[in-house]
Amino acid sequence: MAASSSVKIGIIGGTGLDDPDILEGRTEKYVDTPYGKPSDALILGKIKNVSCVLLARHGRHHTIMPSNVNYRANIWALKEENCSHVLVTTACGSLREEIQPGDLIMIDQFIDRTTKRHSTLYDGQCSALPGVCHIPMAEPFCTKTREVLIEIAKKLGLQCHSKGTVITIEGPRFSSRAESLMFRSWGADVINMTTVPEVILAKEAGMSYASIAMATDYDCWKEHEETVSVDKVLKTLKENANKATSILLSAIPLIGSMEWTDTLHTLKVSTHIRSVCTGDSV
Hints:
By secondary structure, the protein is of the alpha/beta class. It is built from 6 helices and 13 strands. It has helices at about 70-80, 145-155, 175-185, 195-205, 230-255, 260-270; strands spanning about 10-15, 25-30, 40-45, 50-55, 85-95, 105, 110-115, 130-135, 160, 165-170, 190, 210-215, 275. α2 packs across α5 (about 230-255). The termini are far apart.
């Protein structure tokens, strides 16, 4: 089936998962936004006739720490390129015995433990976005897009958990053991440093957002297990990065062939549930 003209996929690649070679006919585009510059140049291309825009979250040389990523500029840049969907990859630590290093998790909920990040596009910096946005966040991730990713992962025979709650911490340090145990008691399944505010901003922008999380370690809660380190994270990513890539290469053509009018309309409508400058109630 031919790709839908209304579908354009933004891909935000996380640590070790931002290979531009997945795109055909690549070109680079440097842009600016009302919120400053995004993490790097946008790389435009196609995956099996579906238009895509790839952006390295931490910059192509991984020079931007999680707290300093310009999440708002990244999302705005993808929206300005008319992306209807945002598919992202992220490394994470496992807080559950059953989620083993190398496993994939299609996260469906988040807990926010960040402290230093701009978490809304509606802060007065962009004249095109007046007012205050009170975006519904009961379902942060797009269910329909997640279902596609889960289906593809299963067809590829990959070890994939169909849901999970991620807790996003500020970083750049890893958790203390006391924190890791506390996060487990809160119901978090995995831990990372980037999902928030990215998922919130994508929802404000009216885009379908879904995340492929890859467990790299057991954080530090598990006794008699090597605690998380940068070397361990990178080693696991290097061994397993092809899993996320294979999902994207199969899922994107399927997403491009599907009908998304109702889903995208619902996302746009939810963005308009807000209080405006005049003091209207939500």
